[in-house]
Amino acid sequence: MADPTIAVIGAGPAGIRATEALAQHRLPVIVIDEAPKGGGQIYRQPPDAFRRSPSLRYGFEANKARALHTTIERLASAIDYRPSTLAWNVWDRQLDTLRAGKTEKVPFDFLVIATGATDRVLPVPGWTLPGVYTLGGAQIALKYQGCAIGHHTVFLGTGPLLYLVAYQYAKAGATVKAVLDVNAAAAKRRALPALAWSPSMLAKGLYYRAWLGAHGVVVEDGVTPIVIHGNGGVSELTYRRAGVETTLRCDAIGLGFGLKAETQLADLAGCRFRFDRESRQWLPERNADGESTISGVYVAGDGAGIGGADAAELWGERVGLAIAARCGRPRDTTRIATIDRQLARLAHLREGLERAFRFPSQHVSTIRADTILCRCESIRIGDAMAAIRVFDVIEMNRMKAVTRVGMGRCQGRMCSAAAAELLATESRQDVAAVGRLRAQPPVKPIPLPWSSPR
Amino acid sequence: MERLVERDRPSLEFSLDGAPATAREGDTILTAVLTLRRHLAEPRLGDGPRAGFCLMGACQECWVGVDGLPVRACGTLISAGMRVATDRRSPSG
After folding, report:
1. How many CB pairs under 8 A join A and B?
2. How many other C-beta atoms can be found within 10 angstroms of the C-beta atom of residue A380?
3. Could A232 and B4 be called an inter-chain contact, meaning their C-beta atoms sit closer than 8 Å?
């Protein structure tokens, strides 16, 4: 049998390890990645003009970052590696891609979707002011550009990334005014036994927090954001804790409430989705091999469900080995068993993280009605709620049709988490019952002069 | 945006809405503009200026015009002589 065509979308931890496993079995692979260099968002490599060492850039994770970067560099000559390329549609077992202004179709027999994640954000009054960035964005400013998002930065939200980014900023010489976690300290204490499934990760988390405290950074739990003030840019943040309102002067805010899987391409490929209670998001269904409900289409890494970079590497390899076996290569049952054991351990850790850093869904219905919900279309929460009532909306795509929430250029990436919670509250349904926004091609905007093949 | 580390990269000249401006090699367009001023794009829907948001190509808030073509400022490196237009009401923005 002739070797099949295998396409991998994404050159982050999952995509790189999937590619490596396939290449080791001498299978031809096409790797399509939006970034000019491999590593994904977590191990993103800076432009050439930057020379800082990986240990300064990636901290404790420097060895993992370096290993992945070397792997994709080493593989690049043996595979069909297409960096700076956007996969913007999947249809009838072919991808539509865009690279340097040219569209190209890529037919495939097997597809690995390793599209990663973005920050899950929630509206806060004033969050469209210049100076407010996602938490992940704040980290990218530092590791990719050597910049801080402001001179006096507050980190607000929840999740392990909150403490990590604050630590990285302070270590690099930035002024961190405060780290404000919406989850209470008690939630974190309750999650400790599950977090202890990864002693090293727990130790790192405790270390970051202790280091911040020891260096005079205000670290608070159980915080409710009230309003971001500013004229032409952030100047103050007001929050409430234990009934007391506090206002901090700051010119930048890193905002994030965990991560959200980038699932648009899996949706366009026709994969069936399920609502994951633990992480409160819709995810493509997958079997033990990482295969979706569409034969030959596999999902791996955070794009298949938030599991973190270590799990993403393992899932990538796992999927690569499964596809190799499907292509007639011997199935490496020993390695597969090892990976599955490690993934099971990381799944326990993930449960702990989800419990310690819950998505604050109960906050959403308390956000001021004049707050912008949809940043693309500048739609305010009150207007969206009024439309939901007038049109008796009970489902997300209907909500999009009558309010335009989710219809803008980000396709709901930045607003759909909050929009779903609002719709669920207003229509008195469980959040799973309101459904999810359907993905539309192109999954990201394509400049018009480039949209037709030439 | 504040330049924190590796500030000694070679500088380069570009134009920002018609005025001469200076950036560093390896800057994205977003970094180049936001180290000079606080906002990136002029108001589009009347709710105040924006300055990008996600920095990873997801939010689509940082589109600007470069030499007459639309690009995402967070994912495009600046180069010498680039003409960057940030007014979205212009045809290229």
Report:
1. 137
2. 17
3. no
Write the DSSP string, A375-423.
TTTTEEHHHHHHHHHHTT--SHHHHHHHH-TT-STTTTTTTHHHHHHHH
CATH superfamily of domain region A121-257: FAD/NAD(P)-binding domain (3.50.50.60)
Say yes or no: A447 contacts chain B, CB-CB below 8 A. Answer: yes
Interchain pair A172, B5: CB under 8 A? yes
Q: How many CA atoms lie within 13 A of A232 on its CB side?
A: 4
Structural domain spans, chain A: 6-118+260-353, 121-257, 361-434
Cβ neighbors of A87 (< 8 A, separation 6 or more) are: A9, A32, A95, A96, A97, A106, A265, A443
Enter the tokens of residue A9.
């979308």
Residue B18 touches partner A, C-beta closer than 8 Å: no
* Dihedral sign (CA A100, A81, A70, A56): positive
Cross-chain residue pair A378–B45, CB shorter than 8 Å:
yes
Taken in order A76, A79, A81, A87, the sign of the CA dihedral is negative
Write out pLDDT tens, residues A225-261.
999 999 999 999 999 999 999 999 999 999 999 999 9
Q: According to the model, what pLDDT value does residue B93 have? A: 37
Residue A404, pLDDT score: 95
CB A381 within 8 A of CB A419: no
The reply to whether A378 touches chain B by the CB within 8 Å rule is: yes
Which of B5, B46, B51 shows the shortest C-beta gap to A131?
B51
The model's pLDDT over A317-370, given as tens digits with 9 standing for 90+, comes to 999 999 999 999 999 999 999 999 999 999 999 999 999 999 999 889 899 999
| CATH number among 1.10.10, 1.10.287, 2.30.30, 2.40.30, domain A361-434 | 1.10.10
Render chain B in DSSP notation, one character per residue.
-EE-S-TTSPEEEEEETTEEEEEETT-BHHHHHHTTSS-SB--SSSS--B--SSSSSSS---EEEETTEEEETTSSB--TT-EEE--TTSTT-
CATH code for the part of the protein at A6-118+260-353: 3.50.50.60
Give residue-wise pLDDT tens across range A104-133.
Answer: 999 999 999 999 999 999 999 999 999 999
Q: What is the dihedral of CA A91, A95, A98, A102, to 10 degrees?
A: -90
Walk me through the domains of chain B, giving residue ranges and CATH numbers.
Answer: 11-85 (3.10.20.740)
Q: Please tell me the distance from the alpha carbon of residue B54 to that of residue A121, in angstroms, as a whole number.
A: 10
Q: What is the pLDDT of residues A163-174, one digit of tens each?
A: 999 999 999 999
Distance, in Å, from the CA atom of A30 to the CA atom of A53, rounded to the nearest integer, reads 30
In chain B, the N- to C-terminal Cα span, in Å, equals: 22
- What is chain A's alpha carbon radius of gyration, rounded to the nearest angstrom? 22
ipTM of the complex: 0.95
Q: Which of A128, A413, A444 sits opposite B47 (nearest CB)?
A: A128
Widest distance between CA atoms in chain B: 38
Instruction: Examine domains A6-118+260-353 and A121-257 and report if their fold is the same.
Output: yes
